[in-house]
Specification:
83% of the residues lie in helices and 0% in strands. It has 495 residues and is mainly alpha-helical.
């Protein structure tokens, strides 16, 4: 009997190890695919695959997967323009063991946080993050060290350009060149080209046209030598130089060439920005009013199209985040079920062994069962307490206008969200959040205070939703929301 029991334990342990190794390999594969999607510019797939890797990492207890999956998610959110959400994910990355042990991961977290701060126009905080990153890079080695220095210098150069601090921009552009000096020009031609063009813009802005032309010539030489197809930044630098010299017609020609190159490579965002530049350029220089009007119209059409697409992407990304919360809950439940099954198997073997041994052992088993029942009672009480704490947390999130409010509300009242979406599947997350506050019986004044808008703005949004859901004017808006689902004893927010 003892031999049988030992063999059973050995089988269970071996099975778990093999299953865990397979899951970790799957996590690594998902992380690799996620990076492929990122490099290809497929943002939604990048985020979706990172979330899959993250969930499986928790099942497999894969520390590296937890950190990298969460980091890729944060990076994707920052690229999507959801900077605050990205910063929250970075905080969770910092709680992992892998982050604390790996210098490269800590360095990368500073890089992405700096980009998020830059997107929020918090330039000084961005500079601080990039400089913290520089302090970590010195401990890296090989290719990682060189690339990290290059990207950090580039990021600092961009921030100082936004601040109009040309001397600092020049300093970090020069550091980029120095960092590239030890690398093969053939493989790093594009990076050399970018630095030359940025330095050309710096010296043009300073009025040193001769030095600006010098760097333009160096960039042109690289383009011809390596047949580089992406040259719109070069044309932008050339246009700036000619404009500085007062050669407006020549500057216009280079802007037009820049637009043509953006069309060739399919950069719609770059085309939109160039339409704006050309419209302003032709109007400011009085060169061609018809062209100014033409590019103004082209900008408006493309801008509207891109903004609609961006809104759709953001909505889909936010839906992915909501799904992440659901999947994390499902993962915890699945893991608990697995643990319970294993525990039951072990318990069954133990019972058989104890019954075979003696009545004395049966008595011990009975005592253990009593302890288990007591634990279940305690767990039940804790579960009820957690439910109350979640509702209090939900109210605090609403009052602080925290983005996590809608996520927790969806977890607590899924039937209400489903009922709203059955009326209008295309409801935006902001509309869902507004209806959720009404469901919690927040007053117009409360909603105005917590979302930082005027009372008039809240009333207008209520009227729009009344029309959308065909709510009669004599029906109280909050009551209609609360009657949408038949949930007894619905809690209400206390002011």
């Amino acid at each position: 009997m003892k031999k049988y029991l030992l063999l059973s334990f050995l089988f269970l342990f071996t099975f778990r190890v093999i299953a865990g190794d397979h899951q970790k390999q799957e996590v690594d594969s998902l992380l690799a695919k996620s990076r492929e999607f990122a490099n290809a510019g497929n943002l939604l797939k990048y985020i979706e695959t990172a979330i899959k890797a993250l969930n499986l990492s928790y099942i497999a207890d894969h520390e590296e997967g937890k950190a990298k999956g969460r980091f890729y998610l944060a990076d994707g959110l920052v690229v999507a323009g959801l900077f605050k959400e990205g910063l929250k994910q970075l905080e969770l990355v910092e709680s992992t063991k892998y982050y604390r042990e790996k210098t490269l991961m800590r360095s990368e977290v500073h890089r992405v946080r700096g980009r998020a701060y830059g997107g929020l126009k918090l330039n000084q905080q961005a500079i601080r993050e990039f400089r913290l990153q520089l302090g970590l890079i010195k401990d890296l080695t090989g290719e990682y060290k060189t690339k990290s220095y290059q990207f950090t210098y580039e990021n600092l150069s961009v921030v100082f350009q936004n601040l109009g601090q040309l001397d600092s921009m020049e300093k970090y552009s020069a550091l980029q060149l120095k960092n590239l000096s030890g690398l093969d020009e053939n493989t790093q031609a594009l990076r050399h080209q970018i630095v030359y063009e940025n330095l050309a813009k710096v010296y043009t802005s300073k009025g040193d046209f001769a030095k600006g032309q010098q760097y333009i010539d160096q960039s042109l030489a690289l383009v011809k030598k390596y047949e580089i197809p992406v040259v719109y930044n070069l044309y932008d630098a050339m246009a700036g130089l000619e404009y500085g010299k007062g050669n407006y017609k020549q500057a216009a020609e280079y802007h037009e060439k820049k637009l043509a190159n953006l069309r060739e490579i399919g950069s719609r965002d770059g085309m939109r920005n160039t339409y704006r530049i050309l419209a302003d350029f032709y109007r400011k220089t009085n060169l061609d009013k018809a062209k100014a009007d033409h590019y103004e119209m082209a900008f408006s059409r493309l801008n509207d199209s891109l903004e609609n697409e961006n809104r759709e992407v953001v909505d889909q990304v936010l839906n992915q985040i909501l799904k992440l919360k659901d999947q994390e809950s499902e993962t915890k439940i699945s893991k608990s079920v697995t643990i319970s099954i294993i525990a039951l198997m072990v318990l069954a073997l133990a019972i058989s062994f104890f019954v075979w041994r003696s009545r004395h052992n049966r008595k011990i088993l009975g005592q253990k069962e009593e302890a288990l029942q007591e634990t279940e009672t305690i767990n039940k009480e804790l579960t009820e307490q957690i439910g109350e704490n979640k509702f209090n947390n939900l109210i605090d999130l609403a009052k602080s206008n925290n983005p996590e409010f809608l996520t927790l509300f969806t977890e607590l009242y899924p039937q209400f969200i489903q009922a709203l979406k059955s009326l209008d599947p295309n409801l935006r997350s902001t509309e869902l959040e507004f209806c959720a506050m009404a469901f919690l019986n927040f007053s117009t004044k409360n909603i105005s205070e917590y979302t930082f808008v005027t009372i008039r703005a809240v009333q207008i949004r209520k009227n729009r939703l009344r029309k959308k859901f065909d709510i009669s004017s004599d029906m109280d808006f909050n009551s209609w929301m609360r009657e949408l689902v038949d949930t007894p004893d619905q809690p209400q927010a206390q002011d």
